[in-house]
Specification:
Layout (H helix, E strand, L loop, with lengths): L12 H16 L10 E7 L8 E10 L2 E5 L4 E5 L7 E2 L4 E5 L2 H37 L4 H33 L2 E3 L4 E6 L6 E2 L4 E7 L3 E7 L4 H5 L8 E5 L7 E8 L10 E6 L12 E7 L7 E4 L3 E4 L2 E8 L4 E6 L1 E6 L2 E6 L6 E5 L10 E3 L17 H8 L1
Parallel strand pairs: 1-23
Antiparallel strand pairs: 1-22, 2-11, 2-15, 3-10, 4-6, 4-9, 5-8, 6-7, 8-10, 11-14, 12-13, 12-15, 13-14, 16-21, 17-18, 18-19, 18-22, 20-21
Helix pairs in contact: 2-3
Protein name: Efflux RND transporter periplasmic adaptor subunit
Family: Belongs to the membrane fusion protein (MFP) (TC 8.A.1) family.
Keywords: Coiled coil, Signal, Transport
Length: 392
């Protein structure tokens, strides 16, 4: 018996077409994006604070005068009997050059001086004889004048040779580098065997005498310091490792230009102490009293971020549980905290940890310590999985 082909009923065709279209749309459509997880952040409420009334700077002790000493003439360095850190006295030998060439130059100058002296004496004798001949009428006045000019030229040559001999004698003496004043060698800049040009530094000597406290200040504090120049006891200095009360210092110098690397200004203050009372390079802390600023905000350093070249703080909207960045104006850091002078109001809730993963308008939850459910903490950021569980 032969089988008959199965024919589809016309009423099923629309149903099949709809089913095929649904399958095709399902295959072509993109999957739904996963919802962004809630971020857990640590927060704090902003209050009213006062800025510190004292500025502290790291400083060191330096000599009031420190000289880089070198030879006045060029030559080969043959010896340097002083070493780094050695105390030297005025007139003590610091270094010496090879004197062979300088000695030959001095001898040549002396020989030229003797020759000029002989020529000057001969010219003077000739002029006297011609003067007698002119008196007797044997030569004219013009001849006598020529002899007189020759005698004057010989005398000038003698004076020139004498000066040159003095210069060459000085050059020979300049082969020895002597200490101008008593002090301490703080740097050695040339070793024996080196060929040096005139003026090349060989050693650096810190002179005995008054000592200064040297430190750096930021640009925004230079103006206030300049007003204290010359005022006694403007600063208080505490020497590291020293026992006793802080020392009073007088502000002596403020640099006119900023350091090209650190963009800070060099400041020097006089301690009024000599070399025997403090050590070169000794560290110190300089304190400067400043007016107390009221109605500022003290925040942890972790609460302030940078965006677009400006300092921002993330503020939490408790009603919507979302965050927004707010530009602020900051002052000088105070320990582990930063002082905010503009941009925040008391009572605002800000994010202090977890702000590196935030975006404007993002939904967040407050971090809750797992060991103390329901109690906000001041440390750490809850992982995203825990934050989502806390939100549910």
């Amino acid at each position: 018996m032969r089988a008959r082909p199965v024919q589809s009923s016309p009423r099923f065709l629309p149903l099949l077409a709809a089913l095929g279209g649904a399958l095709w749309l399902a295959a072509c459509s993109k999957p739904e994006p996963a919802p962004e997880p809630l971020r857990a952040v640590r927060t704090m409420v902003v209050g009213r604070d006062a800025a510190a009334g004292e500025a502290l700077y790291a400083a060191e002790v330096r000599a009031r005068t420190e000289s880089r000493l070198g030879f006045r003439v060029a030559g080969k360095l043959t010896s340097r009997p002083v070493e780094l850190g050695q105390a030297v006295r005025k007139g003590q030998l610091l270094a010496e050059l090879d004197v062979a060439d300088l000695g030959l130059g001095a001898e040549a100058a002396q020989a030229a001086l003797r020759a000029a002296q002989v020529n000057a004496e001969q010219a003077a004798s000739d002029f006297k004889r011609f003067e007698d001949l002119h008196a007797q009428g044997f030569i004219s006045a013009a001849d006598l004048e020529r002899r007189q000019n020759a005698q004057r030229a010989a005398q000038a040559t003698l004076e020139q040779a004498r000066a040159q001999a003095s210069v060459q004698g000085n050059q020979a003496r300049y082969s020895k580098l002597l200490a101008d004043v008593s002090g301490v060698v703080t740097a050695v800049e040339a070793e024996p065997g080196a060929v040096l040009g005139a003026g090349t530094p060989v050693v650096r000597v810190a002179q005995d005498g008054p000592r200064d406290i040297v430190f750096q200040v930021p640009e925004d504090q230079v103006g206030g310091l300049r007003s204290l120049l010359g005022k006694a006891s403007a600063l208080r200095v505490t020497l590291w490792g020293a026992q006793g009360q802080p020392l009073a210092a007088t502000l002596r110098e403020v640099a006119a230009a900023a350091d090209p690397v650190g963009r800070t200004f060099l400041v020097k203050a006089s301690l009024g102490l000599d070399a025997g009372e403090v050590r070169l390079g000794q560290t110190a802390t300089v304190s400067l009293a400043r007016p107390v600023r009221q109605d500022v905000r003290r925040l942890p350093l972790s609460a302030v971020a940078e965006s677009g070249g400006r300092s921002v703080v993330w503020v939490l909207d408790a009603a919507a549980m979302s965050v927004q960045p707010v530009p602020v104006v900051t002052g000088a850091p105070d320990g582990n905290q930063v002082v905010v002078t503009e941009g925040l109001q008391p009572g605002q809730e800000i994010v202090t940890a977890g702000l590196h993963v935030l975006t404007p308008g993002q939904k967040v939850v407050r971090y809750v310590d797992p060991k103390r459910p329901g109690a906000p903490t001041a440390g750490g950021v809850m992982p995203v999985s825990q934050a989502s569980s806390a939100a549910r």
